[in-house]
Amino acid sequence: MAETVTFKNMALAKAINESLRRALDTDPKVLVMGEDVGKLGGVFRVTDGLQKDFGESRVIDTPLAESGIVGTAIGLALRGYRPVVEIQFDGFVFPAYDQIVTQLAKMHARSLGKVKLPVVVRIPYGGGIGAVEHHSESPESLFAHVAGLKVVSPSNASDAYWMMQQAIQSDDPVIFFEPKRRYWDKAEVNTEAIPGPLHTARVVREGTDLTLVAYGPMVKLCQEVADVAAEEGRSLEILDLRSISPLDFGAIQTSVEKTRRLVVVHEAPVFFGSGAEIAARITERCFYHLEAPVLRVGGYHAPYPPARLEESYLPDLDRVLDAVDRSLAY
């Protein structure tokens, strides 16, 4: 086993690479599979160097067949392996959707708990990179709606490293959404200190006037919003959900009971998005604490636009600040 090292200023993509390397090195039952994950190292180079170091039987280049990739991973998991499969882009996951929701998610319940499927499905997701059609989707709520799946998304390199470790060690299937526009953002990563349980939210900025809840690519945007708001004398608290299913409603409730206002931010369309469930549940739990309705900021209920228009589609500083102003105006 390789010596544990503390890394600093590691990009999010590199953190996932190092996490996969550690898992492959530690457990011979861990496999990495996907389109171009081997010799190429992935289109975002997240798996760069892994096949060279661990061989083609551990890091496997698959055919361009997402349903086959996930189906094969299910079979391997039934035989005791822990496959980590990559869906090359978010919009490519739908050919595998049937395998994921009718087989991967259901086997534990179908077998009355006797069969576990420790499969991690990695999905680079979201916009902001100027990609073509089917390369910038945010389908996380489709998977969060399916019982039997865990759905998570890191916002920084440290979480990416440790959440991948925890996902691989989970006996239940995990859909691991990687915010592709944050792949090159760097942060300090301590590979010796687990930051916390996989499905707990974390306050990344304390505040008193309003709570911003986000995950994945929108956490950094919320930090920028809080900086601007601070210049105007407003104190915003930021909660990074980290896990979309299960959701840490307790952490959200604790924050909202303090600030009495909540704005939920995600890239996915607002219509039937994860923010809707958060708004409904927090309204139930915090009705007598809220001083304003829960507001949501997200994408529009429309197909993802061409690259030249995506900045008008995605939530930005002004749209989130507008929601903050509307909430504080009550």
Automatic annotation (TrEMBL):
Note the SUPFAM superfamilies from the entry: Thiamin diphosphate-binding fold (THDP-binding), TK C-terminal domain-like
Its signal peptide is: none
- InterPro entries xref list: THDP-binding (IPR029061), Transketo_C/PFOR_II (IPR009014), Transketolase-like_Pyr-bd (IPR005475), Transketolase_C (IPR033248)
Gene Ontology molecular function: any one: oxidoreductase activity
Where the record annotates domain Transketolase-like pyrimidine-binding, the positions are 10-185
EC numbers listed for it are 1.2.4.4
Q: Which UniProt keywords apply?
A: Oxidoreductase
Protein's name in the database: 3-methyl-2-oxobutanoate dehydrogenase (2-methylpropanoyl-transferring)
Gene source species: Streptomyces pratens
